[in-house]
Write a structure and sequence with these properties.
This protein is mostly helical. The protein is built from 5 helices and no strands. The chain is elongated.
Length: about 120
Amino acid sequence: MDEQTFKSRTRLLALEVVRLVESLPRGRTADVLGRQLLRSGTPVGANYRAACRGKSASDVIAKLCIVEEEADESIYWIELLVDAGVIAADRADAIQKEANELLAMTVASIKTMRARKQP
């Protein structure tokens, strides 16, 4: 996947996270979990953009590792929202699938870059 497409997909993920959080019912659990999801789901794209501007291979890898962490954390918060009964599983399916795909691609990129860095 090319850089522009990945940037676009991470931006769309952030927008879907925003829409999901805005649609949550009001209540303590939904507010806390929604806030956490918002904090992890929106920076995925921002951190990927930062990785694209990395100054060295090590810098790019470090920034991609942040993308990996944020995407994985987002999946966790979505799972909790479903498991706690705040949202229906089918409401979370598409966003969870996209986050998982982005996570897998990020991990693959990190592995590839690390392998290339080896002497």
